[in-house]
Amino acid sequence: MNKGFVYESDVADFKIVAVIFDDDGMVVHGQAVESREEAEDFIRKALTDLRDVEGFAIPR
User: Within a 13 Å sphere around the CA of 54, how many CA atoms are in the beta-carbon half?
Assistant: First the structure.
């Protein structure tokens, strides 16, 4: 199952980064964003899109 995380840093060039990982801990998708709300929206949409693709590729 894919998982999403929000990373925030005061010292990084990109202050907030939203990242999606696969089951093996490999990065599937990531994006620098301006706010935590934008990060959560990105994660929600990315996870929904991935679930839709997985459901299409692997019928349940």
Answer: 9
